[in-house]
Amino acid sequence: PISAVAGEPVTFSTSVVNNPGKPHTKLTAEVKGPHSFPVNFSSNANGSFDVQCHPEEPGYYQITLKRADNGKPITNKPFIIEVGGSSLPEPLPPIDAETDKKSKFTTEVVNKPGKPATALIPE
Questions:
Q1: Distance between CA atoms of residues 10 and 5, nearest Å
Q2: What are the residues whose beta carbons fall under 8 Å from the beta carbon of 32, sequence distance 6 or more?
Q3: Contact indicator for 36, 69 with CB cutoff of 8 Å
Q4: 39 and 53 in contact (C-beta within 8 Å)?
Q5: How far apart are alpha carbons 50 and 16 in whole angstroms?
Q6: Distance in angstroms (rounded) separating the CA atoms of residues 84 and 3
Q7: Which segments within 26-117 are labelled E, that is strand?
């Protein structure tokens, strides 16, 4: 999948030619996922397109690119975009501890679906 951060633009490229080897000139997109967003195309005039989108919410999205003239998908597989949360979380305050002594702290770990995860940390 293509990795992305919610609220930040995503750009990827694809090559699109039809059976006789001629480039397609117009595309449309179908977005499936938790939320919809517009998908824009920039033709590179050689059969390739830069594809731009701006997912605002985290989640897994499936983008199917289609020919504008007949609505048929241009590939057998859709593009998958995995959108995570913010790129840089707020910094944590420093832990007040001496380096040569044991300290205790608590942290919360969640997996991709947002469910609590377990982790073993050696002492």
A1: 8
A2: 61, 62, 64, 78
A3: no
A4: yes
A5: 11
A6: 8
A7: 27-32, 39-43, 48-53, 59-67, 79-84
Q: How far is residue 47 CA from its own chain's centroid?
A: 24
- Count of positions (residues) in the chain: 123
* pTM of the predicted model as reported, rounded to 2 decimal places: 0.62
Q: How far apart are CA 122 and CA 115, in angstroms?
A: 23
CA triplet 11, 17, 20: central angle to 5 degrees?
175
Distance CA 63, CA 89 (A): 28
9: tokens are 């633009």
For the stretch 12-43, pLDDT in tens is: 988 776 656 566 667 899 999 999 999 998 88
Distance (Å, whole) CA 87 – CA 53 = 17
CA trace torsion 107, 118, 121, 106 (10° rounding): 20
Tens of pLDDT along 73-86?
887 788 999 998 76
Residue with tokens 């840089």: 88
